[in-house]
UniProtKB/TrEMBL annotation:
One function term, GO molecular function aspect: isomerase activity
Record keywords, A-Z: Carbohydrate metabolism, Isomerase
Gene3D superfamilies per the UniProt record, alphabetical: Divalent-metal-dependent TIM barrel enzymes
Residues annotated as domain Xylose isomerase-like TIM barrel: 25-265
Membrane-spanning residues: none
InterPro entries recorded: IolE/XylAMocC-like (IPR050312), Xyl_isomerase-like_sf (IPR036237), Xyl_isomerase-like_TIM-brl (IPR013022)
Claim: Isomerase is one of the keywords in the record: yes
Signal sequence residues: none
Protein name: Sugar phosphate isomerase/epimerase
Pfam families, alphabetized: AP_endonuc_2
Highest classification ranks of the organism: Bacteria, Bacillati, Actinomycetota, Actinomycetes, Micrococcales
Amino acid sequence: MIRRVGTDTSKFPGAADLGAIGTLEQVAALGLEGAFFRSAFALSPTLDAGELSEVTDAAADLGLYLEVGVAKVNPFATPEAPEIRRLGEGDYLLGMERIIRAVTAAGITELWTATANYQFRIRGLYACDRFRTDVDWADQLAATAKVLERLAPLLRETGAHLNIETHEEISSFEVVRLVETAGPDAFGITFDTANVLVRGEDPVAAARRVAPYTRSTHVRDVALHRTDDGIGRFLAPVGKGVIDWGALLDELDRGGATANLSIEGVIGMNAEMPLYVDDPRWWAGHPDLTADEFAVVEGHTARYEERARAGTAPGLDDLRARVDSDEALAFITDSAAALRAALAARVPTSTAA
């Protein structure tokens, strides 16, 4: 059963100034139960064994779970992370190995990774690496699978799982295939409940697909609204968007997911990402997506717009407004309260069913 509610620290207000232990203390003070650091360098810039142990000891003393990220695994995206290559003295995989060995030696074994990036400074289809024209997405996935194959022996040796995120550029179908091919004994899934909607997926159906391999999460809700680009996906606190949390949590439990619930908040904006549903290139880029599943997304969009017109949910202008630090913190605490209410309201679902 999934019970512990924590937060991703990359969107936690003040985390950079607080440092890792200060962030853990603040997380605990808010009544949260764990922390998901996107980068191991946030725990120790030099991956110093003593510093890493201090952080893991602090988390244990505070009763917090601790999860950490490694680096991207799509070799066509790795040039955007030169610090990993520097760590490996020019060898990107060696850099990843050094991170994995350092954090697992400190007792952290649930490790995050993702496949590519989203360029918020670029507007249009090509902001998403899925639609690059210099390398097809299928070739990016094939290259990623080779990287996973090379990392698998190290993960098995160290007892770690490298959990691939349902990031905004990749579908849940594709993440499942990567994990099943590379081996669920070494790989898992970080289920981001909001990103699957960028790929036109019903989050409850996506939860059903990823549940058997879900070992960590990024939890947030979604507002959907028609825009000049198609359908805009915006982030929302849990319970304020379109996701049916009871049904989603049921699917995770039914499928045997073992993950903590790490709320990923917002910094500065609600992270609008368009679904370019009026562009045939967008549809051609989603061979797994069915009309029935996309119809669920269309229904969510229509119902959210009705709420916005009625004044019971933020409209498009409000969704696009800047988010200050107080609102960013409230996003996390409000989401935690809503998640706990959803958990408390549920009847436990047997994984044997």
